[in-house]
């Protein structure tokens, strides 16, 4: 299994080079990092199904939410094409602030740089700071504080500069 710090370091190294794709296989786990243009895509495939490795609890999604946003959804795909998605690099609990009493790291409308911490993901009692990885403006926060998130789940939408 690859460690988050190792994956982040590989992404930084690839971003600084002209390499567009890196694939590594280690002990039945495959890591593929692809750089099609500016946004980075990270894919990790475990030998065992992810549900068996992490055993995440099911996430309840309100039934009314999709119906309420359906009219906007028709125009949303065209508007979201130019937005960068900050995705969860792991299964964990999303925290928008460093402590329950603190203000959120970022909110809708906040300007971020590639090193701006946007949230914390707690996984196996470890707090992992997640950086924006892009310069721009937070257009939307897609998850709630304390929500369980899955690997690859979009957390924020950013309008890149």
List the helices and strands and how they pair.
Blueprint (H helix, E strand, L loop, with lengths): L3 H12 L5 E6 L2 E6 L6 E5 L4 H5 L9 H17 L3 E4 L4 E4 L15 E2 L4 E7 L2 E6 L4 E6 L6 E2 L4 E7 L1
Provide structural commentary.
Helices cover 21% and strands 34% of the residues. It has helices at 4-15, 50-54, 64-80; strands spanning 21-26, 29-34, 41-45, 84-87, 92-95, 111-112, 117-123, 126-131, 136-141, 148-149, 154-160. A hairpin with a 6-residue loop joins strand 2 (29-34) and strand 3 (41-45). The longest helix is centred in the middle third of the chain and has 17 residues, at 64-80. The radius of gyration is 16 Å and the shape is globular. Mean pLDDT is 77; it is low at 46-58 and 64-75.
What structural keywords apply?
161 residues, alpha+beta, OB fold (Dihydrolipoamide Acetyltransferase, E2P), 2 domains, four-stranded antiparallel beta sheet, 3 helices, 21% helix, globular
Give the total of beta strands.
11
Structural class: alpha+beta
> How much β-strand is present in the residues?
25-35%
- Describe the global form: globular
């Amino acid at each position: 299994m690859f460690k988050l710090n190792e994956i982040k370091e590989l992404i930084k190294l690839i971003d600084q080079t002209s390499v567009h794709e890196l694939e590594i296989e280690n002990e039945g786990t495959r890591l593929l990092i692809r750089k099609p243009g500016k946004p980075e895509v990270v894919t990790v495939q475990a030998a065992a199904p992810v549900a068996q490795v992490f055993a995440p609890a099911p996430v309840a999604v309100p039934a009314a939410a999709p119906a309420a946003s359906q009219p906007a959804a028709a125009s949303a795909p065209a508007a979201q094409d130019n937005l960068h998605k900050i995705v969860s690099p792991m299964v964990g609990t999303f925290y928008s602030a460093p402590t329950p009493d603190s203000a959120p790291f970022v909110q809708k409308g906040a300007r971020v740089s590639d090193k701006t911490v946007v949230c914390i993901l707690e996984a196996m009692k470890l707090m992992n700071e997640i950086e924006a990885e892009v310069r721009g403006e937070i257009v939307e926060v897609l998850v709630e504080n304390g929500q369980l998130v899955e690997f690859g789940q979009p957390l924020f939408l950013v309008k890149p500069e």
